[in-house]
Amino acid sequence: MNVKPRILVVDIDGTLLNRQGVIAPVDREAVARASRSGIRVSLSTGRVVEASRRILEHLGLDGYHVFFDGALVVDPQTGEEVYAESIDRKLLGDIVDFVGENGITMELYSSTRYFIEEENWAADIRRQFFGIEPTLVNFDNVWREERIIKATLPVRSPEETAKVEHFDRQFGSRLNLFWTGTPAYPDEYFINVINGHASKGKALEELASFLGIPLSETAAIGDGVNDVSLLSRAGLAIAMASAPEKLKALADYVVPDVENNGVAVAIEQYLLKD
């Protein structure tokens, strides 16, 4: 890359956040140095806005960020949306019917609220780790009344995996499904379900266009399958060592994993180095 990036987009879980659920001081300081150098730093995550606020505050970041695996680009402080791609309402009604008939656990998210039909292990993780509280509802009403941006299918057993695979066969051609997780819960997965047109890469395009910055002057750091579209569009693509091979194959550089401060290495060696 011959030009200094003007935007750096960084994934959270497995990239910034380690197994203890914290950001290492060296990574935090590297992000701060990037910001001080004039690079706009945005987070790009499958998380909802509320589950990211503490991290944004810890890093001292404001402005626009990417949530819901790319289905929402918003300034959390002002609520100003740059881009939003909700799940089609009629399709959502079909999804609600399907999960009910097949005993599939599902969560639904608007831009500001998190809905479940009954308490479960996933709701406990949402409270304890992500700091968000669910609203108990009947999904038959929610899909008609709310703008739903993301659904999530929690998985931690072979039975739940089989049910998600059944869901994917039914709806995978019309939606984007991403298996996501966090190092703090290595045996639990959350399959994010978003509009088929949405992705982290699409969100980067929308954010860069809104800011008037060409994609050639963007950089991205990620570690998961949901970062494939992001790294494929960024001018400078950096993958963590823990990333799947398909992501590393797209990267210009591969840096150490989150436990070995890959974000700091990426920023110091490839963004700030003259």
Characterise the protein shown here.
The chain is of the alpha/beta class and 274 residues long. It has 2 domains: 7-84 and 198-271, HAD superfamily/HAD-like (Rossmann fold), CATH 3.40.50; 89-195, Hypothetical Protein, Haloacid Dehalogenase-like Hydrolase, Chain: A, domain 2 (2-Layer Sandwich), CATH 3.30.1240. 35% of the residues lie in helices and 21% in strands. The chain has 10 helices and 14 strands. The protein has helices spanning 25-36, 53-59, 89-102, 121-130, 139-145, 158-171, 200-211, 228-233, 245-248, 262-271, and strands at 7-10, 40-43, 65-67, 72-74, 81-84, 107-109, 114-116, 135-136, 150-155, 175-180, 189-195, 218-222, 236-240, 253-255. It has a 6-stranded mixed beta sheet, covered by helices on one side. Strands 2-1-12-13-14 form a 5-stranded parallel beta sheet. The chain has a 3-stranded antiparallel beta sheet with strand order 3-4-5, covered by helices on one side. α1 (25-36) runs parallel beside α10 and α3 runs antiparallel to α5. The chain is globular. The chain starts with 6 loop residues before the first strand and ends with a helix.
Give a short overview:
By secondary structure, this protein is an alpha/beta fold.
